[in-house]
Amino acid sequence: MVVDLRAEQDEANQAERDRLLETRVRIDELKRTAARLCKRCREAKGREPGQKIHEHGRRYHVTGPHTTHHCHADWVWERIAEIEENS
């Protein structure tokens, strides 16, 4: 009886680890997509770009004190945020 419960718990834990690993792999794939789509995401080496300008609701790269550039992979970062929120 105790062995059965432990085996069930081990299976549940393994399933959760597999799900988390799958999520992490998906996020890594999306970050590589962002690097392909946007030069500044590529330069950021997988880190999320700059800041979000709320009036436009789109991401920008802050490259200087008065310089910003629109992120060409904005939709990718939105998808990553959704995945992280749901996991």
Q: Would you mind describing this structure in some detail?
A:
Residues 43-67 are annotated as: Disordered. Residues 43-54 have a biased composition (Basic and acidic residues). By secondary structure, this protein is an alpha+beta fold. The protein has one domain (2-86). The protein has helices spanning 2-37, 39-43, 74-86, and strands spanning 51-53, 58-64, 67-70. It has a 3-stranded antiparallel beta sheet, with no helix packed on it. A hairpin with a 2-residue loop joins strand 2 (58-64) and strand 3. Helix 1 (2-37) runs antiparallel to helix 3 (74-86). The two termini are 32 Å apart. The model has no long low-confidence stretch (mean pLDDT 81).
Based on helices, strands and strand pairing, what is the structural class?
A: alpha+beta
The first-to-last residue Cα distance is 32 Å
Helix content: 55-70%
**How many separate domains make up the residues?**
1
Quaternary organisation: single chain
Question: Ranges with pLDDT <50 over ≥5 residues?
Answer: none
Q: Which strand-content bin applies to the residues?
A: 15-25%
In N-to-C order, the SSE pattern is HHEEEH
Broad shape: elongated
CA-based gyration radius: 19 Å
Number of helices: 3
What is the residue-averaged pLDDT? 81
Strand runs, count = 3
Strand order, largest beta sheet:
1-2-3
**Biggest beta sheet attributes:** 3 strands, antiparallel
